[in-house]
Amino acid sequence: MHRRLLDVPAPLQVVAVTGRNVAARRALEAMPRPPRHRRIVLGYTRRIDEYMAAADVIVSKPGGLTASEALCRGAAMLIVDPIPGQEARNSDDLLEGGAAVKVNNPASLSYKLTSLLTTPGRLESLRAGARQLAQPRAAFEIADHALRLLGREIQRPVFSPSAAQGRWRTTVRRVSA
């Protein structure tokens, strides 16, 4: 898959995340990179949300967590190799929601990504589809519902930008059920 990304004629900045797979990381680092592209190869990182926020397109299998994070960040997805079952259903939902393009054959990855990046409005259309499907407060809503069923008071986090740090900070306020 990485080789196919490097076949894209337009200059790209590729961030490849291999998690804890040291062998995959070493193999990607050893792979020749055309000078028109920039590449960062990472192992495990706690900053994946920041990389996703910076991404125009996420090329990945459509696992539940990856797909959810991509949607919440409003990133288009190029789906590769979904396994039967949950990933196949995630793939269908992303495609039907207009948030992704599926690569059925690895040889077509370069073509599909090039087409996505060069067709006017196509990338923004997929990003809009991602934002439409996103449910960034889903975990909070589930917790709220569960606590209401138990008749308990809710502590709801409030997110606000911290001007001093340029980062997000969390405060908690009490809300009665």
Describe this structure in words.
With 177 residues, the protein is an alpha/beta fold. It has helices spanning 2-6, 22-30, 48-54, 64-72, 86-96, 109-118, 122-133, 138-150, and strands at residues 13-17, 38-42, 57-60, 76-80, 100-103, 154-162, 167-175. The protein folds into 2 domains: 2-133, Glycogen Phosphorylase B (Rossmann fold, 3-Layer(aba) Sandwich), CATH 3.40.50.2000; 138-175, no CATH class. 43% of the residues lie in helices and 23% in strands. The strands form 3 sheets. Strands 3-4-5 form a 3-stranded parallel beta sheet, sandwiched between helices. Strand 4, helix 5 and strand 5 (100-103) form a beta-alpha-beta unit.
